[in-house]
Specification:
Elements lengths: L2 E7 L2 E7 L6 E4 L2 E2 L2 E2 L3 E4 H45 L5 E3 L5 E4 L1 H7 L3 H4 L4 H5 L1 H15 L16
Antiparallel strand pairs: 1-2, 3-6, 4-5, 7-8
């Protein structure tokens, strides 16, 4: 009589057909990702325990994946709410990353510069404002990006993208 042993290895299901041995140990070759591992002598109980442990890991991964998906959905919803609020304000609001590239700008930016936010996204400040305007504000931008609070008032002539 032949018995079937089902092993779950890293989310891949492998089926091994074995003959029940006279001794309580099973000798089988476990394959992993196409490469063969050395023979392992394990009892039926050890294999069942490993399978249960792997099932627990799969359950945990599925739980984490569900949590990750829910978190991403909540983040997208909050981002939409933030954009709605920022777009309704009659002021220029933007987020510039440490490399001085635009990562967010509101509708007022679109109206002010005459370019869609998608056209400004990932562009360097110098590209959006022009080189002369950038040189006027560069020191303030660098200070702000270093984490210090900055306040200044300047009239700037710029030639945007």
């Amino acid at each position: 009589m032949r018995a079937f042993l089902f092993l779950l290895l890293l989310l891949n299901i492998s089926y091994a057909t074995i003959d029940p041995p006279a001794a309580p140990e099973l000798r089988l070759l476990i394959s992993h990702g196409g490469s063969k591992m050395k023979d392992q002598n394990k009892t039926k109980k050890e294999l069942i325990n490993e399978l249960a442990e792997l099932r627990q890991r799969v359950d945990e991964l599925e739980r984490l994946e569900k949590h990750h998906t829910e978190t991403e959905e909540a983040l997208r919803e909050r981002e939409g709410q933030f954009t709605l609020v920022a777009d309704s304000l009659p002021v220029l609001i933007s987020y510039v990353d440490p490399e001085q590239r635009y990562r967010f700008n509101n509708k007022a930016y679109e109206h002010w510069f005459g370019h869609l936010r998608e056209e400004v996204y990932e562009k360097h400040i110098k590209e959006v404002l022009g080189e002369l305007a950038y040189e006027v504000i560069r020191q303030y931008v660098e200070t702000a990006l270093s984490g210090q609070e900055v306040g200044f008032e300047k009239w700037i002539t710029f030639w945007p993208i």
